[in-house]
Amino acid sequence: MPQDQNAGRIHSVRTDNSTFERLEEFKYLGKTLTNQNSIAEEIKSRLRSGKACYHSMQNALSSRLLSKNLNIKIYRTKIFPVVLYGCETWSLTLREERRLRVFESMVLRRLFGPRRDEVMVEWRRLHNEELNDLYSSPNIVRVIKSRRMRWAGHVACMGEGRRCMGSWWGNRRERDH
Length: 177
Description:
By secondary structure, the protein is of the alpha+beta class. It has helices spanning 3-6, 40-56, 58-61, 68-84, 94-112, 128-134, 140-157, 168-176, and strands at residues 12-15, 18-21, 25-28, 31-34, 115-117, 122-124. The protein contains eight helices and six strands; from the N terminus they run αββββααααββααα. It has a two-stranded antiparallel ribbon. A two-stranded antiparallel ribbon has the order 3-4. The longest helix is centred in the middle third of the chain and has 19 residues, at 94-112.
């Protein structure tokens, strides 16, 4: 049905003895899918999960017993993957890129802590440029873009049979038949 005829109605699909209700959004394999095909809700959901993951590890990350390098490794191996799950299919707007950078800056500021300003003789938050200098890894948006390019390369290699051309398994199957 055209969208204007759908307004205010809940549609369901019946097959055999099952009825499926039409939803505005739902989770499937850990991803939030919407009827508008909007990635914004998925990114918000991933950021909420990343914040929850950070807060669950906050005691360990704020411990003086762990070095900054170890804290960064924990961030890269535990929190980063939670936020970036499925990012290969995201098409980011500037607003979403900004949200991701703000999240990363928030975590990095907490990991690196404040700096003592010798001139003003007080503690202050790190500026974004200082965070970039301290955090030598690529920022979150750059990682997403590189993963998207890698995924696009995999898709480009796929042949008609939905298998990667030139793979060991593909060559073996062609040889054996």
